[in-house]
UniProtKB/TrEMBL annotation:
It is found in: Cytoplasm. It comes from Desulfurispirillum indicum (strain ATCC BAA-1389 / DSM 22839 / S5). This is Hypoxanthine phosphoribosyltransferase. Residues 14-161 form the Phosphoribosyltransferase domain. The keyword Magnesium applies.
Length: 178
């Protein structure tokens, strides 16, 4: 049986402070406007919920929608993402904020942004909780970044290892011992 060693990287209190800061930055940019948060499933479900609740303390109209995408194995050559689950409404003319748990190589979001731009949003921006810039294979940069982390495999707060550990309240570094 495998045992898992998870070492705390970002405790819940620090995540809360980070989300409060992100909400302030976003609210300053969209003051008095409406904003559609697009939660990229699965990993972003907790982050999106907490960010939406934090944004409710500011002066903007927030809606939330969901989509689930995965990169094709040959996505670099096809430039496409597989749409597992699309959002339920039009984004044409809307302020859209894509909410991601983590940006690693940047491939998923590069392809997703290209797809969503064809739907003519008014303004589209990207918010990620965790950013691993050392892993990037393209120039992708988020507009709002929670925490920059090293090239470590992390779990918790929505992020999984083999579908487990999404429920952990903080972010931990996963060490796998066979
Ligand atoms: O920058 P990239 O290298 O493309 O990786 C980032 C993607 O990987 C994770 O999703 P994952 O495929 O693990 O799915 P999940 O959110 O359903 O767990 C994360 O939520 C991003 O969508
Ligand atoms: N759970 C998890 N998913 C990822 N996808 C890309 N990087 C990571 C990571 O560190 N943890």
């Amino acid at each position: 049986m495998k045992s898992y060693d998870i070492q705390t990287l970002i405790p819940p209190q620090q995540l809360q402070q980070t989300i409060e800061r992100l909400a302030r930055e976003i609210a300053a940019d969209y003051e008095g406007q409406s904003l559609l948060l697009v939660c990229i499933l699965n990993g972003s479900f907790i982050f999106t919920a907490d960010l939406a609740r934090e944004l409710s303390r500011h002066n903007l109209e927030v809606e939330v929608d969901f989509m689930k995408v995965s990169s094709y194995a040959d996505s670099e050559s096809t430039g496409s993402v597989k749409m597992d689950f699309d959002m339920s409404r039009s984004i044409t003319g809307r302020n859209v904020l894509i909410v991601e748990d983590i940006i690693d190589t940047g491939r998923t979001l590069e392809h997703l942004l290209r797809l969503l731009r064809t739907r003519d949003p008014r303004r589209m921006a990207l918010c990620c909780l965790l950013d691993k810039p050392s892993r990037r294979v393209n120039g992708l940069q988020a507009d709002y970044v929670g925490e920059v982390i090293d090239d470590l495999f992390v779990v918790g707060y929505g992020l999984d290892y083999n579908h487990r550990f999404r429920e952990l309240p903080g972010i931990g570094i996963m060490n796998i011992e066979e």
